[in-house]
Structures are given as C-alpha cells and as structure tokens.
Amino acid sequence: MKESTVSVKKTSHRIQRYYAYVLATIISLSIPFITINGNHIFLLSFDKKQLHLMGIAFDMQELYMMPFLLMLLFLGIFAATAIGGRAWCGWACPQTIFRVVYRDLIESKLLGLRRIKNKQKEPDWSKAENASKKLVAIIIWSALSLIAAADFMWYFVPPEDFFAYIQNPTEHFFLIGIVLSVAAFLVYDVVWLKEDFCVYVCPYSRVQSVLYDDDTYQAIYSTNRGGNIYNDDKEKIIFKAKDLPDPTNECTTCESCVTVCPTHIDIRKGLQLECINCLECVDACTTVMGKLGKESLVQWSSTRSIQKNEPTKIVRKSTIMYSIALIIIIGLLFVMGGKKEYMLLNVNKTTELYKIKENNVISNNFLFLFQNTDSKPHTYNLEIIDHKDIVIKRFRPFKLSPKKLAKKVVILQTDKLLVNDKTKDTPITVTIRAYAVDEPERISVLRKAVFIFPRADKLK
Prior knowledge:
Layout: H1 13-30, E1 35-36, E2 39-40, E3 42-45, E4 50-53, E5 56-59, H2 65-84, H3 87-91, H4 94-110, H5 128-153, H6 159-165, H7 173-193, H8 196-201, H9 204-211, E6 218-221, H10 223-226, H11 256-259, H12 280-291, E7 298-301, H13 303-307, H14 317-337, E8 343-349, E9 355-356, E10 362-372, E11 378-384, E12 391-393, E13 398-400, E14 405-414, E15 426-436, E16 444-453
Antiparallel strand pairs: 1-2, 3-4, 4-5, 6-7, 8-10, 9-10, 10-14, 11-13, 11-15, 12-14, 15-16
Helix pairs in contact: 2-14, 4-7, 5-7
C-alpha cells in the first residue's frame, strides 16, 4: 500500500528576518533626523542637557520622565520575551544584524567565503586567497562600523551638531574618539567575538529562562514525533542505542538544524541559553521534512502546543499583568509629558537674611534663574499671589530667547509690621508666580520663597 503524503508549504524565516533587519536599520537611521517643531522625536543630549521625546524637549530639571522610559523599556522586553521568547535577539538586535551583514552578506554573498546554510564550518584561512578576502571583508565592515558608530552617537549628539563638530576635529577629539572606539569595538565584536557575545556577554540570555513558560513561542523540537536524540543528562543517545531506532521516530538525524545554527547549538537538546530564536533550524528542518511530505520537526511554537498538544494561550496571567503594567506606564508618560514646563525657574536666597531700611522698610534679596525651554522668545514677569503686604522691587519684565538662561536679582520688600515677635526672626513663605506676558495661561510657574522678617526689637 502506497504511503500517503501531506503537502507542506515551505516557509523561509530567513527572508522574513532579512526584511525585519532592513526595517530595523531604516528606523534606527531615520529616527535621529526626524524632528517636530525643531525638537527630535528621541534624543538624549548630554551636550545640551536635554531629553527630546516625541517632539518635546525636557531639560535636566525635568528628567522625571526617565524612570518611566526605563520601566517601559524593561517591562516591554519582559513582555515580549514572555510571549515570543528571544525574538528580539533573532529579529531586531543590532548584534545579530551586524553578524548577518558581515557573515551572510559580505563574507558569503559578496566574497564567497562561506555557505549561508552551514554556519558551523569556518573557511580555510590558511589559503592566501581566503586570507586576502578576509582582509577585504574586514575593511568593508570597518567602513560600515563607522556609520553604525555615528548613528549611535546621533542619539546623544543630534546630526546637525555632529556634522558641524567633525568639521573641526581638533576641537572635538572626545566626540571623534568615542565614534572611533565604538567602531573599533564593533569590528572586534563582529569579526572575532561573533556569537560568543550572545552566549557569554549578553545578560539577556540569563533572564530569558526566568520569563519563559509553557506558552512562550520559541524554536522547539518535537520529541513526540522525532524521538529523543538526547537523554536527561544532555548526552546524545541516538547513535549509542543498542537496539535499532524506533521506526516511528521521524527525525532523520541529518543534522541540518545543527549545521545552520549561528550559535552552534543543537535545538533537539531543548531550551538553551544560547538560542536566539533566529529560526534557522526551523527553515532547515522544513526543507528536509518537506521533501518527505511531512511538517517540520522544529517549529516556531510553544511547549504546550508541541508536547501537550494543546492550543497556546496568548491571553494568560502573565501577559495580562504585563499589559496592565505597560498601559499604566504609558498613561503616566502622557500625564507627565503634559506637565512640561516651558519656563524653568530656580529661586535662591542670597547670603544676607534681610535689610532694614528707613521707616522700618524690610527687604530680602533673592537670585532668580530663568530658563526659556520653549522654541520661541518670551517676555517674563513676576507677581506675588498670597501676600499683598509684600511687594516686588527692582524687577522689570524682560525678554529671553529660546533655550537661554538669565539671572536676575529680585528684591521683596514690605513696610508693614508683619510679625510682632521680640524673641526671634520669623520666616514667611511667599508664593511667586512667574509667567510669560504674551502667553500667561500656557507659560506660568509657581515658586515658593522664604521672606525673613526681623524680630521686633530690631525695628525702630
């Protein structure tokens, strides 16, 4: 009786990954150049001491946004890992993209040094032809590393400033040194360290095992269909068995899933820290088993689906909790972002507590530091909103350009007997409103100042 076969549609996760790499590259190169009203959509400028987020510039005094951004980053990574395993590593991580560009594009496609479908076999570098091609590959990658290092710096030094700075290299040795150092590290990392970075350096692989559960999508080998290749001690038993292999096991031991793995692991051992979910093994097994009219033994699936033959639960306790946490953090980001102050003001008292003038006029000197964080100039004024007996002296409204600072000595004064206490000086808290004359509703801040009133026996 002729054995029936099933039609298996061949899929290539490699090609899908390449599309993801191109998209990630375009996004990472484009973000530094996108601005809204003169502000970048994301920029952490150490030079100007600002955080730009979605077209809004936050100064150092407003970096209350950073904790929320960090929480969003880490919770987002944890949530993505709980659902899709190390999908970030295989599909969007710069380390993986750089290695694919160097190994698959430069060495394999351009120079013909490798076979893309065999990541385990190193070329014979003793041959002069291979050695010369290796040198060419390093030179090409070094040029690309400089671009990648510059792109990295654009998230800290905006491109418009970066290109202006490098035109005067003698004045910006530190900036150029950082770019060259990052480029040098990328050359060492991609050419010599390779996937050992993922295995031994990157901490993410140590975190993943804690975040995985039975419903996490990952590259997983079906022991139900293929049979056990390794025992519980991770020792290969397929070639050590005294009896003939079980004829119902579908694994052909062709090792295609092993030779194609960039981190040099055997997916048939089960979950391993080195696996980056690139799905190369899924493609390899799909090709082999497809020729036999069968589905791949290695699939992008979950433990629940493969081993327990139950549907994967996307909506579950962990994903619900992550979703709630992410929604709360995003909501807080919007709320805090809406509290952006377009004028910053610091109020500091001078070293002199107070001065007693003629007719018992009491004055306190303060140093006001104004900063215009808006994108256009404004004229600023002051008013006291809670003490009608204290007035502002020696201050006139002034105009301040965007991103500029100004120091003003402000005198608060009173001729009233505010406190009749012969034992001690009395601090009085005064609320001062600073506002832009042209936009008082939008640009207005409140600050507290402590007015010191002298004890009564010092008055005449």
